[in-house]
Amino acid sequence: MKKTLWTLVLFIPMALQAQTSLPLKDLSFWQNTNKANWQIASDAQADLSQHGVLSLIPGTGILVNLPDKTNKANLISAKEYGDFDASFDFMMAAESNSGFYLQGRYEIQLMDSWGVKNPGTGDCGGIYKRRKFIPQEYLYEGHAPRVNACLAPGLWQHMEISFQAPRFDAQGTKIANAKVLMVKLNGAVLHENVELTGPTGGPIAETEVAKGPIMIQGDHGAVAFRNMEITDLSNLPATMDPVSYQVFYGVFTSPEEFKDKKADVSGVTEKISWDVSAKPFGFAEILKTSFEIPKAGKHQVEFEIGGKHIIKLNGVEIYKELIQENNRRRTEIVDLPAGKVALEITVFKKNKSSANKLGFWLKGPEFRSTAYHSFGSFLNSSSDDPILMDAKNPTIFRSFMDLYKNGKKTKRVVHAVNVGNPANLHYTYDLDNGSIAQIWKGDFLNTTPMWDSRGDGSSRPRGVVLGLPNVPSLSLQENLFSQSDVVSEPYKIKGYEVDQDENPTFLYEIGGADVTDKIRIVDHKYLDRTLKIKNAKAGQKVRIGLSTDIKQVNENTFVLDGKSYYIQATGATIETQGLSKVLTLPAAEQVHYSILW
Amino acid sequence: MKKYHVLICLLLMGTRLIGQKPVESDYYKIAKIATPEGIVLEVGGLALLPNGDMAASTRRGDVYIIENPNSTRPYFRKFASGLHEILGLAYKDGFLYCAQRGELTRLVDKNGDGKAERYETVYSWPISGHYHEYSYGPKIGPDGSFYITGNVAFGNTDWWAGKSTVPWRGWTIKISPDGKMEPFAAGMRSPCGIGMVDGEFFYGDNQGDWQGSGFISHVEKGDFLGHPASLNWADRPESPVKMRKEMVFNIVDPRDNPLVKPEYVETEAKPMTTIYEMAKTLPNMGIKSPAVWLPYGVLGVSTSELLVDDSKGKFGPFAGQVFVGDQGMSKIARVFLEKVNGRYQGASFDFMSGFRSGVLRMTWGSDNSMFVGGTNRGWGSIGREDFGLERLLFTGKTPFEMKAVRAMPDGFEIEFTLPVNRKLAADINNYDVSSYIYKYHPVYGSPMVNRKENPVRGAQVSADGLKVRLVVDNLREGYIHSIVPEGVLSEVESNPLLHGTAYYTLNAIPAGAKANIPLQTPKPKAKKELTDPSKEANTPDNQTKEAGPKIAASIISDKEAKALLTKHTCLACHKVNEKAVGPAYTEVAKRKYTNAQIEALIAMPKPSNWPEYSTPMPPMGHLPKGDIKKLAAWINAQK
Fold first, then answer.
1. Which end of chain B has a smaller Cβ tally under 10 Å, C or N?
2. Which one of A451, A485, A492, A500 makes the best mutation probe of the B interface by having the most chain B beta carbons within 10 Å?
């Protein structure tokens, strides 16, 4: 049974590399600005509706910018970087604007782009435009984010950036452009492998350099940062000697059959390559070379090989595959010393139908994953076309839907209704308990998992996902704090009705009450939910939030889960039991609230 | 002028006399239904609406209303969408009903704009989220209730073993119009084809673990149809099923080690059984063996729809019989049912091949044409297209076929569609009858076992030439009897039978008077190289390439190979140089097996050698050894 590779996700352990967590107990990481806008605090809070307002709670742990007319300096790091990875949490004040400059020259825009339908270069996560002054000021290039993954002001957001510095020759002439290898906002990929032809607007200098500082824009608006981490990857990757090879033609079932024979062909080639064999099958080959490892430590070896194979690194057999010839990509973590390390790869292949490929990558404590195979040895292509579903009009689509928490799958919702919207704000409704199980921003669904060949009946959200409590919305007092996804009262699913724009209203009966559940997207920004309940039992409540962290921000606004999302409701109450909190409204004839994210 | 006419008549007669065999398309024609580009019409359900529109549901979750469907330019209107893999459709009292993976849904167009606004959940059933748990239907019973059937899931490590991990998977359930569910029968594996025949509920299952071949079965409340996984729920208070897993496993070794896939074993510790025998051993427990078997590779690879011919003769000579679709073979078979001693049995015949994709659903159009829709995504089919909708039309010309085969106290009676050549039909040497059965075991599919020849001792032609009463020895109850009137031709035009074999499932031999004819002894049959002319003409796979330079004198000719491949049903799954349900013979040749290895693999195939193919090859060791040898050598010579 053929498995397609869309399921392949490589989780690269961060512990592999030399990571620095920026100390945010003071401003010592940064150059002195002689201005007061940059400060240290323990927490920050923004108001959804008040432009530029960010209030602080004294203490340490977060970095905050509160500019005014005279204090609005940019913040520049003392240290300089070539290649690096950065990640941080940030919080925007309403309508605020900032930027994260790589090497002080290339800006990743930080912006309150909440509700923007088609984000541009100036929106959150965009690679900002370049600027020319001759003949007059003129903005050009830049790279728009793929999706608007931006959350509401006052919520903590997460950005990850991978950057490759420009390359220069011995004379100092640039021979390769700087590259944004990746930018992820709240987990959604915004850019991949985007080359930068030069600095973007407002850099510390218009010249490009091998190493430069981090700069955070401070003159445009209030913004807060925490959990800032930088991984310095400036060192050169391990170098590899020329590869000596021996090829044996024939059909072999084990290395014993050929390893001591005289080779049919032998020689030396520059890079690791399977096609030192002239035949695509019915051959065996032994490739030998050495790496010069710059720094001792944990290395990640990655390989994808057609044919049976044995890999020996530093004299130790680290992997062998003696049964399958059609192989997926594999990774092994190995401790390597600095200095010369020998590599020996043995491959033998008898089937014509299995793919011909030998891809080999190495990643070290201070260098990114680097390929050591020749171009023809591994073709970077996939024959599987993804099957994607967009929601240019409101779209209802049922599929299985897997829910995740902290990267781990927690449940497969089997009676799930996914509702997509041209506002790029979508949700999954669980018919089995009348809950909104998750909402997401970005494109609608990836239906490849269910429509490629037999499929598995499930689809995946495309974009940033917010998981919500997958519990019955209506609850009796005794079940108020229950985390169970099962409805404890008599329950009957009745389906849904759609309006003329194809927006659904869900219908069910619970414990003798008749419920209609109408969820609508407003302004590209938030979900509006109205439940109409007939014959509600006395004491029945509607749970609009269930978490260990629910805080009231103002009369009808609550923030949940460590400032992950807001609930707005009039007359809602927080009830507490131990560590658990629940936000409720009484089950009246009409119950209304909004989810802002 | 007269001479000219006579010449033409002679030419025409001459053409026929030269031996142009009839083909299926002489009598029934397949017409494609023009579908707008972009509509992925993976048909999962078809229902004719009272106004003549045809409703079609798809695996992509859409319901289309096809207006003016009998024309060259039908008009497609999307009625509903976003449903979860719809595999059925029915129209009742003004509404469309369909089974999604997880519920029976009623679709309501409230404001008459041609679109559904209300997606009502009539009943939502448990599903585990496994891909294989497809749900089919509804079909509507005489009492107005909805019949739904559901596939089992499979294990993780033991991916071959059907599992029922949540209630009612592998069951038929009945749902009342107001949404009350009643579990009806268990023991199903892949119950894709369901339908009402004479007001009784019938279903067809797919060959797989515990199901030796495809078949159709009458299903009554409390029945157990064979696959034990569903018995997990048999002891629930609402279950009418009396069978329990232990009762099955006392008779058949379940071989349920999750690390070892059960392969076919000729002699096992426990004596071999069939589901027919198990029903006899455990009477009154609801065990139901098939009414009519659909032999694997010929008629029953992936049984899909059941459709009764209620055209009263406007669709040809088979009024009242049941058409059965097959997804993998892109064909439709035909079943004649009768009741003997109060239970259903009968004969299956080949009917029509050549549909563009897998045949999943059939229904009648408003003009007595048959709408045939399907898909092959995930399983492959002989038809090369991914999906499609076609119509099957009767030309008005009656084919020469075995219309029906009825069991007699001492043999069978064949009823033909047209009068037979009396001399040929009365010669017992023109009939070949043999019988065999399938094992009931946890292995995926079963070879034909306990095969025996059944000598034909007498043949009596009726006065009108339409019926022949055969006296046949060695009849065995519970066995499939293959009846091949090889040498019989029609009286007019001397045509051979369009489809030459009837497969009669002899559940009971009727009591009654024996045929009053003198018995003869048939001549011993030489192993003829003659092709079965009807089979050769009607498989879609006639792709044996022209004879090329021979490598060795000992390899048979392509013509002989084609004859053997057809006779032994290899061409149901293999083509010579193209991938089909199984690998191309040229691909097999490239593996450079020895002839002996291929012979061994024909007898005991290893699906793990071809991981990219989803349908395992059944063991074919029952074929004549000489034929296997010849075919192995011939396959190896394919380039």
1. N
2. A451
